[in-house]
């Protein structure tokens, strides 16, 4: 009996690991798509990584911003000029931790290479899996 329980527990944990690995890759794909779209100068496509909701929370140097539209408006205001004004973005992902099966925490760094400067910093993100898709619902970037 103990052996059957042990085998069942091993199978469950292997299934959880496979799901976590698949979900981690899906989250990394969201971030890679954001990076690629940023580097094309396409803020609208970049924003597809965020939950399109008034509950989106973005925290930056100016404080908290609530809502997808307001976040989009701030990006467009702060990074005008398409590709030339936005620069070349790179990420360094430090960790992806799952808080439960539908919520993940991501810690990373960002670096933006532009003609006149190279700002950089760190970010923490909370992702939520909604309708089978991972979306950012909290972004704290500094």
Automatic annotation (TrEMBL):
<dbReference type="Pfam" id="PF14534">
    <property type="entry name" value="DUF4440"/>
</dbReference>
<dbReference type="InterPro" id="IPR027843">
    <property type="entry name" value="DUF4440"/>
</dbReference>
<keyword id="KW-0732">Signal</keyword>
<protein>
    <submittedName>
        <fullName>Nuclear transport factor 2 family protein</fullName>
    </submittedName>
</protein>
<feature type="signal peptide">
    <location>
        <begin position="1"/>
        <end position="18"/>
    </location>
</feature>
<feature type="domain" description="DUF4440">
    <location>
        <begin position="34"/>
        <end position="136"/>
    </location>
</feature>
<dbReference type="InterPro" id="IPR032710">
    <property type="entry name" value="NTF2-like_dom_sf"/>
</dbReference>
């Amino acid at each position: 009996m103990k052996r059957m329980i042990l085998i069942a527990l091993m199978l469950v944990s292997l299934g959880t690991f496979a799901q976590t690995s698949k979900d981690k890759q899906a989250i990394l794909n969201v971030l890679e798509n954001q990076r690629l779209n940023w580097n094309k100068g396409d803020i609208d496509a970049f924003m597809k990584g965020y939950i399109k909701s008034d509950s989106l929370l973005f925290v930056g140097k100016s404080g908290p911003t609530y809502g997808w539209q307001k976040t989009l408006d701030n990006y467009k205001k702060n990074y005008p000029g398409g590709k030339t004004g936005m620069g070349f973005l790179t990420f360094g992902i430090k960790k992806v931790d799952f808080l439960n099966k539908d919520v993940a925490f991501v810690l990373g760094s960002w670096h933006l290479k532009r003609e006149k400067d190279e700002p950089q910093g760190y970010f923490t993100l909370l992702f939520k899996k909604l309708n089978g898709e991972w979306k950012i619902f909290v972004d704290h970037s500094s």
